[in-house]
Write a structure and sequence with these properties.
heterodimer, A: 147 residues, alpha+beta, 3-stranded antiparallel β-sheet, 4 helices, B: 390 residues, 3 domains, 37% helix, globular
């Protein structure tokens, strides 16, 4: 089980990975100096499902993924694994992951992470609302024997 | 004798040049962009991703453009690209109970918890050509809706995201992601023991992209092959079971389409993180089963899971999955194609199939020369025998 710190890091890494790359670049256009430990690398992750939704695992198919690792001059190391083939996205996410382990965390949370989370939630809610609009409301017709 | 043949280079170069020209078509018509294909030919993109077995909408759109809309050729391009990618990891099994659903219907329970959600479906359309779509640039006429959320797509452009509508009972009840909120219909039957249980297991499943498929193939391998199998082939097989060739009496217990998070254990972090979100279609069938020596009469299950929005394929996959389970359930083998794992699994891959099928159009001059000589010799022999008989 990840520690509370790891839990918070898990959340921001997921937010950065799922962010639309263009939006992330808009929120964080300039990256501070950093060393690249692992240059952005494009690869595949095999996505697994479960038989019957809950049973044994099986291989459904792959998805493209880009990963990257960086280190800030002060020491913190950031990692990113993001869906797709956008190397700039992976690098930006890795740098922000590293910065989130420094004093910049509070500012970055307010400036980058929170807006991304709010936008993702709004997008999801809008879609759920559309789905809700297509929910069938059954009603029973008056039946002959009820007269 | 091996005869090297040269001399086709110029013809091939010219053929490819002409192909590029034909791909572009009439230059008076604007060229298609990848985002246009990705957004407006989404179901074709989905099919290429599912059968190409690689989730990447941009690449699938590119493949469709390059292949001039030939979807099997596009799948071929994706499969070829896929082999160039290093495999970085395997994901944790996706949790379809936590799916943010666009569509979720059941043909067995009218009042399932969470409700019947139709989503953006072709069902109940009249299948009449909509000439309004030919009126370029004209927005579609909004359809008046009796309740929020059902208005025409045009409304969104004016900033009406539907967020101001009264909260639906569905919102916040499992649409936010995370914990499982949208339990599977089969779970309700399972509580009463009326349906076979699907035992969870995290054992690493076999992977036909790594090891050549061997028969008998276990269910995990069969599901992988079907998930990337040709939609038309799987559809035809599923239909054959409905017509009586390995009948399984299937009901669609549940069909759902939506997005799930993909979670991967990252070694450098030491824990699992969500790296993205993919759209999936899941179908679970509920099938009759009259019981066996060890099992009481109960319902059994077929399962279909496909990348993207592709319910025809997901339903077909679940029917074929169930038909292939005859042996484990102690049912009779009736000789039906859909029950024959070798027949199904060795022929469902359209890239293998088209590769072998189309290779016969390539030069076989030497093979054919041998056949020609054989036929001539046989004819000569037959003539000699006939003359001798006369």
């Amino acid at each position: 089980m990840p520690s509370p710190d790891a839990e918070a890091r898990r959340a921001w890494i997921a937010t950065l990975a799922k962010a639309p790359p263009a939006r992330l670049a808009e929120l964080m256009p300039e990256l501070p100096p950093h060393d690249v430990l692992r240059s952005p690398e494009i690869g595949a992750v095999m996505v697994r499902g479960r038989t019957g939704g809950t049973g044994a695992a099986f291989n459904l198919g792959e998805m493209t993924v880009t990963r990257c690792s960086v280190r800030l001059p002060a020491g913190p190391v950031g990692h990113a694994w993001v869906q797709g083939r956008d190397k700039a996205h992976a690098r930006r996410a890795a740098v922000i992951d590293a910065l989130m382990q420094t004093d910049a965390a509070q500012d970055l949370t307010a400036r980058v992470i929170a807006p991304l989370q709010a936008e993702a939630a709004a997008h999801r809610a809008a879609r759920a609302e559309k789905a809700a609009g297509t929910k069938v409301e059954f009603f029973t017709m008056v039946r002959g024997e009820d007269k | 004798m091996y005869v090297a043949v040269k001399g086709g280079e110029r013809a091939i170069d010219n053929a490819h040049g002409w192909l590029a020209e034909e791909r572009r078509g009439d230059r008076a018509v604007p060229e298609l962009t990848i985002p246009q294909i990705r957004e407006q030919m989404k179901l074709a993109v989905n099919r290429v991703m599912a059968e190409g077995s690689l989730y990447d909408p941009d690449l699938a759109a590119l493949a469709i453009k390059q292949a001039r809309g030939d979807l099997i050729e596009a799948v071929f391009l994706i499969r070829a690209y896929r082999t160039t990618l290093p495999r970085l990891a395997g994901s944790r099994p996706v949790d379809t109970a936590a799916m943010a659903v666009d569509r979720r219907i059941s043909a067995t329970f009218k009042d399932l918890p969470g409700g019947q959600v139709l989503g953006p479906t072709f069902d109940y359309t009249h299948r009449l050509l909509d000439f309004a779509l030919m009126a370029e640039g004209e927005p579609p006429t909004p359809v008046p809706s009796p309740q929020g959320g059902g208005e025409a797509p045009g409304a969104e452009a004016e900033g009406g995201t539907g967020l101001d509508a009264p909260p639906s009972p569905l919102v916040g009840e499992g649409w936010g992601g995370g914990a499982p909120h949208m339990p599977h219909v089969t779970g309700f039957l399972n509580r009463d023991g009326l349906i076979e249980a699907a035992q969870p297991s995290d054992a690493t499943p076999p992977d036909l992209t790594r090891e050549p498929m061997e028969l008998p193939a276990d269910r995990a391998l069969r599901l992988q092959a079907l998930a990337r199998g040709d939609e038309g082939f799987v559809l035809g097989l599923a239909y054959s079971t409905q017509r009586g060739y390995g009948r399984t009496h299937a009901f669609v217990g549940e069909l759902r389409i939506g997005r799930v998070a993909v979670e991967v254990d990252i070694p450098e972090l030491g824990f699992a993180v969500e790296i993205g979100e993919i759209e999936l279609t899941e179908c679970e069938t509920v099938n009759q089963f009259k019981g066996s020596k060890t099992e009481p009469p109960q319902f059994t299950r077929g399962y279909g899971l496909v990348m993207g929005q592709s319910e025809r394929k997901a339903i077909a996959m679940s029917l074929v999955d169930r038909a292939l389970r005859w042996q484990e359930l102690g049912e009779d083998f009736t000789g039906a194609p859909a029950q024959d794992a070798e027949f199904v699994l060795m022929h469902c891959d359209n890239i293998q199939a088209t590769g072998f099928l189309e290779h016969i159009k390539l030069p076989h001059y030497v093979d054919f020369q041998a056949e020609l000589e054989l036929v001539r010799r046989l004819r000569a022999e037959a003539q000699t025998m006939q003359e001798a008989a006369e």
